[in-house]
Amino acid sequence: MYDKLDEKIMTMTLQHQDLKVAEAVVTAGTTAPAATRGLYARFGKRLLDVTIVLLSAPIVLPVLLLAAIANLLSGNPIFYSQLRLGRDSHVFRIWKLSTMRPDADKMLEELLENDVSRRREWATTQKLKDDPRVTRVGTLLRRTSIDEIPQLFNVLKGDMSLLGPRPMMLDQIDLYGPTLPAYLSLRPGISGKWQVSERNDANFRRRAQIDAEYASSVSLKADVVLIWKTLRTLVRSTGY
């Protein structure tokens, strides 16, 4: 009985979210950059994604296993999932290694309610640099970006790409502004132009502009450059 009720509630929630997405798209317009309709963006990019994921599997799967064990031994959830907005307004479930305490959502509400500076930071960047919700294991996973590894399964499934706009939470649609069609023209990426350039410094609107810049010039050459910059960023461990 409860399973059927939960399924019904989930269906109604998704329908409401799909309606909200549709309204936002109509408001923003439907014109996507021409580069996103090219042969590479439509076909070559997907081939590159699948090839790299399969070739990297022998390396990343053992790392994923060790990180999952570390989460398990620390008493924290192993994985974290959340609904995100994808290409052509498709809503999908993204997967990450858990880096926060189980009561993270409740903690965030209390932090934003009681701390003006953190509330201002969240409104500007949708992130917190000094985030008390993050566990000690989670801090390491975030700094090395190991927490992103489960998204490789999202890439194989076709919900995401290795490179593209940062996956948007559904409650961020109204913040994205007039560049929303550019975001919706591509699969969201594990990495991308924003992640390797102004990752920890840009506000949310600037992030949207960077996503639009990427969409307007997507090409094999640009993606090869981003792959190199992504590897350099991973070595520097600049995430939080």
Textual characterization of the structure:
With 240 residues, the chain is mainly α. The chain has one domain (2-99, 134-236). The chain is built from 11 helices and 5 strands. It has helices at residues 2-28, 39-73, 104-114, 116-125, 136-144, 151-157, 173-176, 180-184, 193-197, 204-216, 220-236, and strands at residues 79-85, 91-97, 161-163, 168-169, 189-191. The strands form 2 sheets. The protein has a 3-stranded antiparallel beta sheet with strand order 2-1-4.
Break the fold down into its secondary structure elements and pairings.
Elements: H1 2-28, H2 39-73, E1 79-85, E2 91-97, H3 104-114, H4 116-125, H5 136-144, H6 151-157, E3 161-163, E4 168-169, H7 173-176, H8 180-184, E5 189-191, H9 193-197, H10 204-216, H11 220-236
Key structural traits:
240 residues; 11 helices
Main-sheet strand order equals 2-1-4
Categorize the overall geometry: globular
Count all strands and give the number: 5
Helix content: 55-70%
End-to-end span in angstroms?
41 Å
Helix- and strand-based class?
Answer: mainly alpha
Ranges where pLDDT stays below 50 over 5 or more residues in a row are: 1-12
The arrangement of helices and strands along the chain is HHEEHHHHEEHHEHHH
* Proportion of strand residues: 5-15%
Give the rounded overall mean pLDDT.
83
* Domains (count): 1
Number of helices: 11
Biggest beta sheet attributes: 3 strands, antiparallel
Rounded to an integer in angstroms, the radius of gyration calculated over CA atoms is 18 Å
